[in-house]
Design a protein that fits this description.
The structure holds 2 protein chains of 2 kinds.
Chain A: H1 5-13, H2 26-32, H3 36-59, H4 69-91, H5 93-99, H6 101-104, H7 110-118, H8 125-154, E1 157-158, E2 161-162, H9 177-197, H10 220-233
Antiparallel strand pairs in A: 1-2
Helix pairs in contact in A: 1-8, 3-4, 3-7, 3-8, 4-5, 4-7, 8-9
Chain B: H1 4-47, E1 54-57, E2 68-74, E3 79-87, E4 91-100, E5 105-112, H2 144-164, H3 171-177, H4 179-182, E6 190-192, E7 200-203, E8 209-215, E9 220-226, E10 231-235, H5 246-259, H6 264-274, E11 279-283, E12 292-300, E13 303-310, E14 320-325, E15 330-335, H7 342-346, H8 353-360, H9 379-400
Antiparallel strand pairs in B: 1-2, 2-3, 3-4, 4-5, 6-7, 7-8, 8-9, 9-10, 11-12, 12-13, 13-14, 14-15
Classes of the chains: A mainly alpha, B alpha+beta.
Amino acid sequence: MKNNKLSILLRGIIAENPVLILILGTCPTLAVTGNVTSALSMGIAATVVLICSNVVISALRKVIPDTVRVPCYIVIIAGFVTAVQMLLQAFLPSIYEMLGVYLALIVVNCIILGRAEMFARKNTVLDSAVDGLGMGLGFLLALFLMAFIREVFGVGTFMGIELGFMKHFCIPVLAGAPGGFLVYGILIAVMNKLTEKKGGVKKKSFSCEGCPSASVCVNKPCLNNEKKEEVENA
Amino acid sequence: MKNLKPTIVLSCIAMAVALILSAINMVTGPIIEEHRNAAANSALIEVMPEGGNFEEIDISTLELPEAITNAYKETSGKGYVFRVTSTGYKSGMVIMVGVNAEGKITGSKCLETQDTFGKEPQIDNSYNGQSLADFAPNLITGATMTSSGYRDAVSNALQAFTLASGGKLDPAIALEAKIPELAPGFVNPAAVEASGSFKKALKASNDAGFAYIFSDGENGFIALVNATGGCIVYDAEGNDVTEAQSALADEAKAHAAANQKSYADDLSAKITKLFADATDVAPVEISTFGTVVSASSFKSNGTDYYAFYSRSMGFHQMDVYIVIDANGAIAKVDAKQYIFDEEYFMNFGGMDIGSYKAGFEGLTIETWTGDAAVIATATMTSNAMKQSTEDAFAAFNSIKGGAQ
């Protein structure tokens, strides 16, 4: 399949938005969207790690043997996360404090390993970098959107700045954990509605085919088997 | 060989990542360490605002007061911060105290306490600027215990500072701490106005005597004067130096004589009550520092007796009279209140006042075991009776010239 750079970029932001369509990286999404500042910091940190790991994994895609690819990816990703962590701790300690354990958990963020597995190992370095940027921005925007709703309507502040007007109309539950789930669910629903109209991902079945990642999924055999089964059954 | 490739690739990647990370760590490590110190220091800076960096010092080699749990030294030599435990109304107070290089308190703060803070502040700034020399306790009415705990902590920190900075403590402090050991009968000695050569004078709350502390910063002496005028001077090592320091002894005696409440009349009245035919009642000087506040010799029916008036601390202040004959056997025991109230004894079925008193009679220091003093379920009172009796025996021995 031919990918021009712009479409790769946009795909990450909308059509295959990691948070709202692929439903990846749910844990940090719910955890850090209580306020806009931490959401943005998390988004940027994850984007940086994503781009870097995509580039390196793509560059090494011919070197890394298939059998040990996951450990290799994890080591590379963990390396970048640790580097980001150390740099933040040294130069932006307040953000380091704010993100807490979720910063270290970027290592096991599904988005990053997912992109390594789905994209970087099969595409050129440049394409992978663009994919990383797109996915990162998609993650960042989704986090920002959620955090914006939760902070502005839940607490009545924006990036810690008090909004005089909103102060009287805040919905405290949005700022708490239940509010996180609620906003997340609503955003996914809205996103589904939007992509449906544009003829985006169609979820006809709950099998592999219905998966938004089906087009890039490595488990092609699985998909083929299912098709075979369908034919046989017919 | 085919199986080797994945291993080598993974190892190489891991090593490369480790190398890169160690390079980053070389840059960020010192900065992170600085941040960490700053965070740890913030609690210390609160009690020593002029401080910068602090490092914890090993206090196991310094003989600091036991209450000091941690000591931090300001790295540029501006002073020390001590973490001190103390006991207020309840135990478990933790107080941070900063002491600057001149030995002055820079700040203090109570970090933990089981007491409820009401009247007393959690941060008592009244101590700021004080040093060991001009230390003035700030006791708050209505929160005496808590503020005493605070005072003790601050005082301990000041002492710790002196020791930690290589100084020597004024012997007066150690001497004052020795009072309970040297004069076990002095209940709650409290400071009274000192005069002359003495740095401090303390009076026992049961009127058993006075303690006078002399110190020139190097050498220190403590002069103990009991209620009968007996005096002993000890040096900092606890040696009896009464003869060498007779001037101090005389001064102490003079002060005590002028301030001591006399129980001699009280005792004579009791003697005549117990022994109707008592004659030649005369006060005697004893040289023990127990709870005895007055001693007299007298004659009755041709025999010599010694009477001792002891004020020991039971559940309340007690007034106990013990009469010992010339052979050292108890002739009579009586007390003013509490345990000899008929009503009190009624509470302890089967005990009667007459037999309790009679239980003491005839006992000598050799046959005394303390059992006679026991009143079941009245432990405090029993112990006070026991102490009074033992103090009387000791006092008797001192009169007879025997061992104390």
